Amino acid sequence: MKEDLLQHIWQYQLFDKQNLQTTDGHTLNIIRLGIWNRESGPDFLQAQIKIDDMVWFGSIEIHIHASDWKQHKHHLNPAFDNVILHVVWEHPKTNLHHDGTKIPTLALKDRVDNLLLKKYDHLLHHDYSNQLACASYLTSIPSIHKFSVLEKAALKRLERKSAEVKLFWGNQQKDWQQTAFQWICRAYGFKVNAEAFATLGTRLPYQYLQAERDNFENIVALLFEVSGLIDTRLCSKKVINTAQHLRQKYAIDSYAMQKHEFRWSRLRPPNFPEVRLIQLAALLYKHANLMDILLHLQSFKSMLTLFDKTNDIIVSYNHEFPKAKVLGKESIYTIIINAIIPFRYAYGMHNADEQMKDQAVNLLQEIPGERNRFTKIFSQYNFPLSTALESQGVLEQYRFACQEKRCLECHIGAAIMKNRDLLVN
Hints:
3 domains; 6 strands
């Protein structure tokens, strides 16, 4: 028995509630089980119980052994003075508040179905390799439960990424324009060079790019010079000469990056950092105000049109930048999913703009679902994966729930534990 399972049993009342009594023989009725507290303090707050003819309001604390009360030093902590019921698995002794009053205790060991314990062991203590721990139960789980899990996980992922945006914003002296530039830079680094591109977005003041926004070659030269990637093997002589002029104009030597901060290993040429820089330059040249892109494009279709126009710039300058490649469809989807949508959601959260947050979520439902090794695992069990909302949910659910075996915190895990008809195979 583990404490998280006992908390789960209490949360969902998965025990025999007939003729409940405290361990010293008093009649017990549970009126309100309380609100599960994930922070410090008692496990369940704002509970209500009735012992004999007396109604009590307060908190409920849960332990495997009654002796854990003193081991955890709750008897010395005033935060536990309002505990009205101590729920334990086993009960070797009665505990006291620091003022000497007894704490009513309920022992659950003889009230929990053994099938529930077997399910818990089956979910958490077997090696499933690349399978989901709940795989053997999933054919019996309704599709609405599967969608609910992915939707909830996708929203958690959006909130987590939004927190990253706010961290960027704080580090940029609360300048949303510079934050937008750093955030979009990071997205153009994709997975391998995300941090290096984010550094570029920190080092290069966005106002300098706006000052050069009418000249594509100048934007390219500025990005290459600050990134430390200016090189005769990558850039034409004209771009190098322009970069030398911009280096003096903006005193770039004092904040330029080094080439070794970027990675080429195991990347295909279309993903090389110099290629991504030219793609980023095309976006900055075609659309001078990044905030407009990140906040005001209303539909997925309008975003695709934006990137089509950006790709047109790259094609038209191909004679000067032969290494340049247009952004592929999957790369465009990735930038929209990982840059535009989280930024919009974060901005909506910052301004308490529920409509903007809803727009971000709705956009995820317009974009086709991603395909990767994680979605492949979930697709085996008929999870809905047609939209990016669902595939983003898969990434979050697998990383922070399935991989960590946090089955008791999952809607599907809860359904398995509650349903007596779902047997251990």
